[in-house]
Design a protein that fits this description.
With about 210 residues, the chain is an alpha+beta fold. The protein has 3 domains: about 1-70; about 85-140; about 140-214, Head domain of nucleotide exchange factor GrpE (Nucleotide Exchange Factor Grpe, Chain A, domain 2), CATH 2.30.22.10. The chain has helices spanning about 1-20, 35-85, 90-110, 115-135, 200-214, and strands spanning about 140, 155-160, 170-175, 180, 185, 190-195. It has a 3-stranded antiparallel β-sheet with strand order 1-4-5. Helix 1 (about 1-20) packs antiparallel against helix 2 and helix 3 packs antiparallel against helix 4 (about 115-135). The radius of gyration is 47 Å and the shape is elongated.
Length: about 210
């Protein structure tokens, strides 16, 4: 702004001088000293404006380059964080399991010298309970299936067996335990299910009942 005011003042001074040197009603002659001064002042004014614009462009370009570099650094850090999260997501869970492994190793060392079988069983039971507590604290729970109705979302039926003590389609035996992680079934339980009674069985039981009454 100061440079622009200075240039405007210079132009005004040149115009005032031209007016003083020119008779009323006369225009500056082409190629006169006054016209040359006006042209030089305009050129100098334009050059100064161009220089100002070039400085602004340079400053904006520097800002853009800095922002681009900051974005690249942020993108690289985010990608590294995601990579570490995916590759080492189970680290905290594994650290919880290591003490259980230590207990198993100590138990194996003492099994050879142990004479009391019940003590070995109790030791293994303690390690098992410790392991199951870690699973429960992490949101992993065993599925209780025996005695419950068969559910295709939780159970895989291996076979059906006759069992008149429970209603049809009831889980009567669990071959492999199922597990739930939070609200998701991560392993279906492999089970044996009670089957529907056949018509012959119904008739036979009915006849037996009638015979006993007679």
């Amino acid at each position: 702004m100061k440079d622009e005011k200075k240039n405007n003042q210079r132009l005004n001074d040149v115009e005032d001088q031209e007016i003083r040197e020119t008779q009323p009603g006369e225009q500056p002659k082409p190629g006169s000293e006054s016209e040359k001064q006006i042209d030089e002042a305009l050129v100098q004014s334009y050059e100064e404006k161009i220089n100002q614009l070039n400085e602004q462009v340079k400053e904006l370009n520097d800002r853009f380059l800095r922002k681009a570099a900051e974005f690249e650094n942020y993108k690289r850090r985010t990608e590294n964080d995601q990579f570490n999260l995916l590759n080492y997501a189970a680290e905290s869970f594994i650290l919880k399991l290591l003490p259980v492994i230590d207990d198993f190793e100590r138990s194996f060392k003492h099994i050879q010298d142990a004479e009391d079988i019940s003590a070995i069983k109790n030791g293994i039971k303690l390690v098992y309970d410790k392991f199951m507590k870690i699973l429960n604290d992490s949101g992993v729970k065993k599925m209780e299936s025996v005695g419950k109705p068969f559910n295709v979302e939780q159970h895989d039926a291996l076979l059906q067996q006759k069992d008149n003590s429970v209603p049809p389609h009831t889980v009567i035996q669990e071959v492999e335990t199922g597990y739930i992680y939070k609200d998701k079934v991560i392993r279906h339980a492999k089970v044996i299910v009670s089957e529907e009674p056949t018509s012959e069985t119904d008739n036979g039981s009915k006849n037996n009942k009638e015979g006993s009454e007679n």
